[in-house]
Amino acid sequence: MKLGVKADYGQKTAQYYLQQKGLVALKKILPKYDIGGFTSYDLSHLTMKQQPHVVPMYHAIHIFQMHALYTISNDKTYLTYYRRWAGYVK
User: Fold this and answer.
1) CB 47 within 8 A of CB 39
2) How far is CA 42 from CA 23, 48, 53, in A?
3) Which stretches make up the D-glucuronyl C5-epimerase C-terminal domain (predicted)?
4) How far apart are CA 64 and CA 70, in angstroms?
5) At what angle do helices 56-73 and 14-33 cross, to 10 degrees?
6) At residue 5, does pLDDT exceed 80?
7) d(Cα 43, Cα 34) in Å, to the nearest integer?
8) First-to-last CA distance in the chain?
9) Is residue 9 pLDDT above 50, yes or no?
10) CA 71 to mean position of chain CA atoms
């Protein structure tokens, strides 16, 4: 299953292209959420120069999101992050 929606006549919609741009951006920014041993809730540790917001519940959500993105896209990037982040809590 691929992300995005195709019109009945086989052409990809604007929604599909926007989704793809969003996924490209997500893959570029994902490393910034990894703070070594955990994930940050947001990027304020970079934008506001403060301590990362570490929330265990959100770390679990991040793991689930990576698994879900890998499942629907088959993109190995998400599988890599899923395994790494799940490994932090083993």
Assistant:
1) no
2) 17, 11, 7
3) 11-86
4) 10
5) 140
6) no
7) 10
8) 30
9) no
10) 12
| pLDDT mean across residues, the chain | 89
**What count of other Cβ atoms lies within 10 Å of the Cβ of residue 57?**
8
HEC per residue, the chain? CCCCCECCCCCECHHHHHHHHHHHHHHHHHHHHECCCCECCCCHHHHCCCCCCCCHHHHHHHHHHHHHHHHHHCCHHHHHHHHHHHHCCC
- Is pLDDT larger for residue 1 or for residue 89? 89
pLDDT digits (tens, 9 = 90+) for 25-72: 999 999 999 999 999 999 999 999 899 999 999 999 999 999 999 999
